[in-house]
């Protein structure tokens, strides 16, 4: 037997298949960040978003941030503090979660926009990307049987939020925000522990309750997640 082949077999037996993993599709997953800062008499923009190791995911996040800034500026282009003595403000901040092995990368963007009124508007925006091909993991790709999956997810989120909201629980808001529709559950990421679903202020509870997040362990979604995603998202 050739010496090279013998060495490879020996390494496989010593290290085992769990050690000899395929390299991540690209590494490191986050190469840097882009910061957009603008100041006028009536506006402040302070936006950040990550530069990922594939162009397609970076472009998707960039385009969302750019469109959000554009819409923000259209609110009242001539605002100069004369009619309302406070500047309008837009802020974005991000967090990134690479899955074990590096195939899937989740991005969560927190957006805060203030255009007058008693308080700013806040909302989450999320993406999960397959770094092998740069495509986004949508609900339909995550859950082949979306109807059955969302029924399960809705029930599990209701169990958690009914307890965690305490005095902020408003049954009618919870019912509307957890109706098993794609729009209600489209903001999610993949963590080592499970699928985390984000709910912005007013979706499931009053503004004062803030953003809500429920992480559902993968074991509680057994058979509902696409097999390749379930295999690539879980920690050992």
What labels describe this entry?
236 residues; alpha+beta; Heat Shock Protein 90; 2 domains; five-stranded mixed β-sheet; three-stranded antiparallel β-sheet
In short:
With about 240 residues, this protein is α+β, with helices and mostly antiparallel strands. It has six helices and eight strands.
Task: Note down, in words, how this protein is organized.
This protein is of the alpha+beta class and 236 residues long. The chain folds into two domains: 19-137, Fervidobacterium nodosum Rt17-B1 like (Heat Shock Protein 90); 138-236, Heat-shock cognate protein, ATPase (Actin, Chain A, domain 4, Alpha-Beta Complex), CATH 3.90.640.20. The chain has helices spanning 3-15, 55-74, 139-142, 146-164, 171-177, 227-233; strands at residues 30-39, 43-52, 88-98, 104-114, 121-130, 188-190, 194-199, 212-217. The chain starts with a helix and ends with a helix. Mean pLDDT is 91; it is low at 4-20.
Order of helices and strands: HEEHEEEHHHEEEH
- Number of E-type strands: 8
Per the CATH scheme, the topology name of the largest domain is Heat Shock Protein 90
Instruction: Tell me the number of structural domains.
Output: 2
CATH superfamily of the largest domain: Fervidobacterium nodosum Rt17-B1 like
SSE class: alpha+beta
Given the C-alpha coordinates, what overall shape results?
flat
Report the CATH C-level class of the largest domain. Alpha Beta
Output mean pLDDT: 91
Q: List low-pLDDT spans.
A: 4-20
Going by CATH, the architecture of the largest domain would be: 2-Layer Sandwich
User: Count of helices?
Assistant: 6
Characterize the main sheet: 5 strands, mixed
Rg over C-alpha atoms, rounded to the nearest angstrom: 22 Å
Helix content: 25-40%
Could you give the distance between the termini?
34 Å
Fraction of residues in β-strands: 25-35%
Spatial order of strands in the largest sheet: 1-2-3-4-5
